[in-house]
């Protein structure tokens, strides 16, 4: 059997045709495909505005800036995430701290957040922005987090890089019911892809306008956003310091084409996850835990193996050609963050999760035969472990 990756894009003839059509059109970038893609994603999720950018990392950066993050301000996120969820604070010159997770879901613990907020209020040091991360595709307890935001006055950027297509009960992630801004990633291992790419959704016209300026050098062509009058039809102004974080029309057309299959992708991932649940039921491992009414987009199927078994199980599965992975090395344990004062023991649930976690292959094109093979190799490596 050939190598089975942990994640993989699914590109069909319609996706290819959509990109070719742009190649033959007048606009490779800054053309009409961008707005079409933004409206399609915003419409799907139930948000008023979408701002397409070249990565979720860029989206997190301009979301932080649009919400006023800067030196002297604080952002808190989950340690169980990709480094980008924390780095966005440092790009802005702000401080970053973490809130521990629930071991079973891998999501930020609302109890830990409530406790940390209480302490921060007592000694001064409440966060300005919270970045909950919807681990593996399941939304965090956003009603619980929203209630705390209302009480303590922080803003919320959801890092929904794993979670396009997931729901909190009746509403889709990205609708803006709980967060100021929601960020998606369209990297090829994520749910839908634009190769590289990301988007920020918001219901605030002002935040959307700020993020549009920041994605393109801080430049505006809107008279209403200018200092003084416009000097003519050619005129633009740089009103703040922005970046070139633009998505191309090629990427936007690919994304819009992929979006048409998003429900199909999530349904297939959900079906494969349920099949893993059945096939793994008798093994001595922790399987993913869902908290209804949340539904998951199933970016990852991450299991917990017994204490001390992770390294050997991982190595045995890789040796057998199975592209297992680990999500995540806690961000606070990265050397760069240790230099900032974080240390082992700071976020014990995230560290315990990391010590046991293995992500099994999960993507729409995974065949049942390949999935059976993954399960057989996992079972054999766990047996070796216990003998
Ligand atoms: C993938 C990912 C990102 C970064 O996405 P890019 O589009 O590669 O910048 C950020 N946060 C999380 C949780 C991710 O999984």
Write the layout of secondary structure elements.
Elements: H1 13-23, H2 32-45, E1 49-53, H3 56-66, E2 74-77, H4 84-91, E3 95-98, H5 110-123, E4 129-131, H6 142-152, E5 155-159, E6 167-168, E7 171-172, E8 181-185, E9 198-202, H7 205-215, E10 219-220, E11 237-238, H8 249-259, H9 262-279, E12 294-295, E13 301-304, H10 310-319, H11 335-338, H12 348-356, E14 357-360, H13 368-386
Parallel strand pairs: 2-3, 2-4, 4-5, 5-8
Antiparallel strand pairs: 1-9, 6-7, 6-12, 8-9, 10-11, 13-14
Helix pairs in contact: 1-8, 2-8, 3-4, 3-7, 5-6, 10-13
This protein binds pyridoxal-5'-phosphate (PLP).
Descriptive report:
This protein is an alpha/beta fold and 387 residues long. Helix content is 39%, strand content 13%. The protein has helices at residues 13-23, 32-45, 56-66, 84-91, 110-123, 142-152, 205-215, 249-259, 262-279, 310-319, 335-338, 348-356, 368-386, and strands spanning 49-53, 74-77, 95-98, 129-131, 155-159, 167-168, 171-172, 181-185, 198-202, 219-220, 237-238, 294-295, 301-304, 357-360. Strands 1-9-8-5-4-2-3 form a 7-stranded mixed sheet. Strands 7-6-12 form a 3-stranded antiparallel sheet, with no helix packed on it. Strands 10-11 form a two-stranded antiparallel ribbon. The longest helix has 19 residues, at 368-386. The protein is globular, with a radius of gyration of 21 Å.
